[in-house]
């Protein structure tokens, strides 16, 4: 497929990403947005936009023509101010500028499968920053999850895999897998990342 932008992400251009994923990928700068016109005959599968501060998101979301297009943002680093507030928005992917080509391709494919992609180190940075905001936690809905399921959700939010969760909670891998499946079903989400994001947005963890 032919990409709709020749901009680059860490020297990786939209043509390369489109070729490697067999998708129509655009990389637009914030300046590109002012003149960008969506071609209804060639709608991108994903538009990736580098941002530099929290307020840049507002400019993106104000673009009515992008409302029905999958959008991913590219952060300049893992320490951008207000990083946790970015998760308030309905964004399909959270990338970081220095990611490798394979990591980017993996993230794009994850989004194409209907999931929200968060760069793993970014998820950890999100968790670390969230700890400073723990005083704002809201009460958890009664009966939504059992105490053990809340424990598992907290472990998921820390980016831990099933083996680590099993060790931390002193339960078997099979039990962890069952708990994770139940948590996803009860929260009505498709994957661990979306479970984490929902919990952060609701202030449950």
From TrEMBL:
SMART domains: HTH_LUXR. The keyword Transcription regulation applies. The keyword Transcription regulation applies. CDD domains: LuxR_C_like (cd06170). Keywords: Transcription, Transcription regulation. Residues 138-203 form the HTH luxR-type domain. This is Response regulator transcription factor. It comes from Oceanobacillus aidingensis.
